[in-house]
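Provenance and format

Records in this collection were gathered into a single text stream. Each protein contributes a sequence line and a token line. The two records reproduced below are adjacent in the stream.
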Amino acid sequence: MNPIKDIKIIKISSKGQMATPLEFRRRLNLASGTQLVITLNDEGQMVLQKLPSSLDWQELTADIPVEQVNIDQDGYYDVKKTPSFDEWMHEE
């Protein structure tokens, strides 16, 4: 389990809403519209996690090779034109 780095006390409103402290929002780059997932673990703790944004996904996938794979009617493709695809097809 990760050590607690910072603690803030918040209140739940009459509508069940909670406000995230500004310092946390800044440190985690949380803005209006940011999606979070909330889970309840076995210890009875609520855990909030930021979902990756479309920009996060673009950065995460930027180095993934992209190849146009043309497969003929017999299911064959040109290995020389699609080396990454061929490598992926033969992974164990």
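Adjacent record:
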Amino acid sequence: MNADAETMRFFPATLSVEQSNAMAQYCRELIKQQGWGVWAVEEKATATFIGLTGLMR
């Protein structure tokens, strides 16, 4: 999803696989440190990743 221009149209830029993985790790670390952050969202029936939700400073 992070590489798709239409999906990322409201974000600063699309991301490479490496950048996307680094962002996911950063989000996990923030949740560990703060107890809150950004979480992945899956479609319940298929467990397909469909986006993200949460809070960031």
